[in-house]
Amino acid sequence: MGRRLELGRAGSSRSRHHDVPFGARAPLDVALDTLSPNHKAILILRESEGLSYDEISRVLRIPTGTVMSRLFHARMRLQRECAKLAG
Question: Which domains does the chain have, with CATH numbers?
Answer without folding.
Answer: 26-86 (1.10.10.10)
